[in-house]
């Protein structure tokens, strides 16, 4: 396996302004992901992809070099993940390293640890498009999710004759924490087109993703309340 780890960290953030370098529990949010990645991979295989000079400076205080500044066109709200990843892969290949597996670690998942990364890696093998971290969703389409039909009436998103939540099939939700991706597959198709995907299950605490202020306050409660569970 020839890994390339990408930690995407653009400067613009609406839900929590400057969240990637905002201090959580006494250190910038992005440090949690960098520390976890360094427990598994060599620095030379880790790229923080950012458009922001302040984020770059904060990251480099850890001793991890940020090898490029992401073009502004790849730092807008409209920029896709696929383009950001391909940009980093191209940079790596142009500098003589040709990875075959990409590990995407988003800095908004501070409670994903090196153990989670190693366990997810153990599930990956040739022939897969991706191993992705998930949690069991509470918004089950057999039970609590509904869509409007052409007459404006609510119908279950997924039909099934279930009267108790305990009886519905388990449904999994991407938690945004770990993506282990075949670079060959990524060069052919974007992530949403992948077919051969295996799940890596994480619990609710470890899956916590920071997107807005409520998520941030919850993360502080987890840290300061010391209630994080493995």
From TrEMBL:
GO terms for molecular function: N-acylneuraminate cytidylyltransferase activity. Keywords: Nucleotidyltransferase, Transferase. SUPFAM superfamilies: Nucleotide-diphospho-sugar transferases (SSF53448). Its EC number is 2.7.7.-. Signal peptide: none annotated. This is Acylneuraminate cytidylyltransferase family protein. It comes from the Bacteria.
